[in-house]
Amino acid sequence: MILNKETAIKTAELLLQIKAIKLEPQQPFxxxxxxxxxxxxxxxxxxxxxxxxxxxREQFAKQIEELYGKPDVIAGVATGAIGIGMxxxxxxxxxxxxxxxxxxxxxxxxxxxxxxxxxxxxxxxxDLISTGGSSIHAVKALREANVNIKGLLAIFTYGFDIAxxxxxxxxxxxxxxxxxxxxxxxxxxTNYINASEAETLKTWRQDPSKWKP
Length: 213
Prior knowledge:
Blueprint: H1 5-17, E1 21-23, E2 29-30, E3 36-37, E4 39-41, H2 50-68, E5 73-77, H3 82-91, E6 96-99, E7 112-113, E8 121-129, H4 133-144, E9 148-157, H5 161-169, E10 174-179, H6 180-189, H7 195-206
Parallel strand pairs: 5-6, 5-8, 8-9, 9-10
Antiparallel strand pairs: 1-4, 2-3, 6-7
Helix pairs in contact: 1-6, 2-3, 6-7
């Protein structure tokens, strides 16, 4: 869910500007899942641009306080959201932890890195939502530590129906700074893509697993 339309548009402009999001309907990318896709998103690139990463951390902080007040802890989902999650925690002067996909195979064999206490209020930060699987996996690990998950915020979402269903099933409140609809509108308005390419991108989002260029 988008909380602020102006933020969604600005986020789209910035991600396109630094090519954190690439739109190439004529030369689609191949995802790890095997899907052919006219879009590729790598929000970790934002960390290399101080003005953009600062904008993202400040928007996260603003929306977190507006939605949930000030939590006790910020948690990042490894590995993509460790950097931005830590920046948000630092900006809000809050403790930070991050959640691994799997428990470490040696040492203390932690799945959650950092200190979090039972009963604390936690907001989870993610960089990108596709199906939502890795995000919900992290939430589950945190809930097993008996913390209260206030919600999850991400930089961008593709807006797949399956993601919405997964978050509802997991009873996780999801908000994102930007989304697919505002991205396509912004790319079209700024002539990053033409009308025909915009239609291709909209068609892909309807059934990405079966889409063919």
